[in-house]
Design brief:
mainly alpha, elongated
Length: about 100
């Protein structure tokens, strides 16, 4: 399965109108923004700790993360970013959508 996924996502065109499917974050940025607001709320309830991480498994093109992190930054919440992704093609696309972690 891992090899199949690597080959499938290596093309970099699985998502979106040209791809095989569309994910919720690609339909509306509201999905990612709500996640960003929820994470920000949790961070504030914990008294704004410095050592926070945003970790996403299989982040696709990074659209969800970009929307969530943009919303979080409005409240000065800028966690370290970690994507768990095997596809080099998708890693490049994710980097284009999301700035590198601090």
């Amino acid at each position: 399965m891992r090899l199949s996924n690597l080959e499938y996502y290596a093309k970099g065109t699985a998502f979106g109108v040209e791809g095989d499917f569309i994910t919720a974050p690609e339909v509306s940025q509201m999905f990612g923004e709500l996640i960003g607001l929820w994470l920000t709320d949790q961070w504030m309830r914990m008294n704004r700790p410095d050592n926070c991480h945003y970790v996403e498994l299989g982040p696709g093109r990074g659209v969800l993360a970009a929307d969530a992190l943009r919303c979080m930054a409005r409240f000065e919440f800028e966690p370290r970013i970690t994507f768990v992704e095997n596809s080099e093609a998708l890693q490049e696309v994710q980097t284009a959508h999301v700035q590198t972690p601090k």
